[in-house]
Amino acid sequence: MSNTDTTPFPKNFLWGGATAANQIEGGYLDGGKGLSIQDVMPNGIATAPTEAPTADNLKQVAIDFYHRYAEDIALFAEMGFKVYRFSIAWSRIFPNGDDAEPNEEGLAFYDRVLDELEKHGIEPLVTISHYETPLNLTRTYDGWVSRDLIGFYECYARTLFERYGSRVKYWLTFNEINSVLHAPFMSGGINTPKSELSTKDLYQAIHHELVASATVTKLAREIAPDAQIGCMILAMPTYPLTPDPDDVFAAMTGEHSNLMFGDVHVRGEYPGYALRLLKEQGVELDITEEDREILKNTVDFVSFSYYMSVAETASRGNQQTTAGNLIPGVENPTLKTSDWGWAIDPVGLRIVLNQFWERWQKPLFIVENGIGAKDQLVEVDGKKTVIDDYRIAYLNDHLVQVGEALQDGVNLLGYTPWGCIDIVSASTAQLSKRYGFIYVDRNDDGTGSLDRYRKKSFDWYADVIRTNGGSL
Ligand code: BGP
């Protein structure tokens, strides 16, 4: 692909970028915001949460989007963004999660963000819940283990649809909904230590989220008929390590644990393999007749994150042997890895796109993709920048595969690479794992001016958007 005439990207393709409130906003107590689970996770997912917020939590200020959103959205517009994916912080709207009334100051903040996007003609794509369950719902109810969370989430979503429903078309119910399996505290607000969490409680929490997702899908259709509701899945193709059928089967089973979430969202019921898995584990879920009816409210589109693939073998047992984005597996010896050991696999993205399209026949949306890297700020012609050729190479190679998938016939709405501006990393809770086209001057020890600088990839991406993928 070299010019606009030959691009396989459709005319109205939604190019943009993605972030999440807790990783970008800061202002963790501003405007009446309550505490979320992220405010007690200063060290990322690997360590236990703290009792109360601690000053070393970089998310308290993050990159100060709460105050600098206008400047940042202007930079996104400069790159030509058509869409911006961001999340609303649940605890800005309902500080305790179970409050009777929403917090007007929190609502007004997102009005201002939407005003700014509108000013630049950028379409919003809103994640309703992105790893930031209000802390009170975690401590008082044990997060999604409790059925009560469905009602609190419904009330929160209703508030959003009523307030923003006429301005926001695209909504995602839960970020990486399948991640609850691997990070129950971060993803499900579940307070029970992972080692003590019973399989039944874990799957019950998952069930509650699935019912909540379908509940608000139904609600959106009543309140905001133009809304398009999507589920969001952490996608990770799982390859058999060898052609041994046992390895092939192990890889298939590994994928099932992710695909189940899409199957329920798209087919409106649990697939047979999931029912069997639960039965074999002795889990009897509390599923009511009403739940079964609600689950039939299926999504309009399927969105997903894609960073890497993984390999699997029947002999792995419970041992996770390779670094990666939450989902376990073994190292694929054919692939190179990022600074953080995540396998780099552009063809895997084409595989996922084809697999999801064939399986679900629903429009797809790539809402996260990118490479976390250790960037070096340098000066070129008197301007500070980052020469991030590795990021350009990663994204270019992945987008070429997206182009191939489009030619395979896949229906894809858009592409929002992750952390389009540097943000606090979810897994490490640090700033040194950077994804952005825009460098933010903030260090892991909290020092830095918070100034923004365009990286080399900023111009590269602007070109990709301007040519609708023709420059790839
Ligand atoms: C996804 C999350 C994001 C983001 C991304 C990159 O799982 O949806 O919140 O953080 O992973 O992960 P990390 O920051 O750990 O590199």
- End-to-end C-alpha gap: 6 Å
Residue ranges: pLDDT <50 for 5 or more in a row?
none
Overall helicity: 25-40%
Order of helices and strands: EHHEHHEHHEHHEEHHHEEHEEEHEEEH
CATH homology superfamily name: Glycosidases
CATH fold naming: TIM Barrel
CATH class: Alpha Beta
Number of domains: 1
Structural class: alpha/beta
How confident overall, as mean pLDDT?
Answer: 96
Q: How many distinct beta strands?
A: 14
CATH architecture: Alpha-Beta Barrel
InterPro entries: GH (IPR017853), GH_1_N_CS (IPR033132), Glyco_hydro_1 (IPR001360), Glyco_hydro_1_AS (IPR018120)
EC number: 3.2.1.86
Active site: 368
Protein name: 6-phospho-beta-glucosidase
Polypeptide structure, described:
The protein has an 8-stranded parallel beta barrel with strand order 1-2-3-4-5-7-9-12, surrounded by 4 helices. The protein contains 14 helices and 14 strands. Helix content is 38%, strand content 13%. The radius of gyration is 21 Å and the shape is globular. Strand 10 (378-380) and strand 11 form a beta hairpin. The longest helix has 25 residues, at 199-223. It has helices spanning 21-24, 65-79, 90-93, 104-119, 135-141, 148-164, 184-188, 199-223, 245-267, 272-280, 289-295, 346-360, 389-408, 456-466, and strands spanning 14-18, 83-87, 123-129, 170-174, 228-235, 238-240, 301-306, 310-312, 364-368, 378-380, 383-385, 412-415, 438-440, 452-454. It has 472 residues and is an alpha/beta fold. The chain has a single domain, classed as Glycosidases (TIM Barrel, Alpha-Beta Barrel). It binds 6-O-phosphono-beta-D-galactopyranose (BGP). 6-O-phosphono-beta-D-galactopyranose (BGP) binds next to loops. 6-O-phosphono-beta-D-galactopyranose is lined by residues 20, 175-176, 234, 305, 325, 368, 372, 418, 425-427, 433.
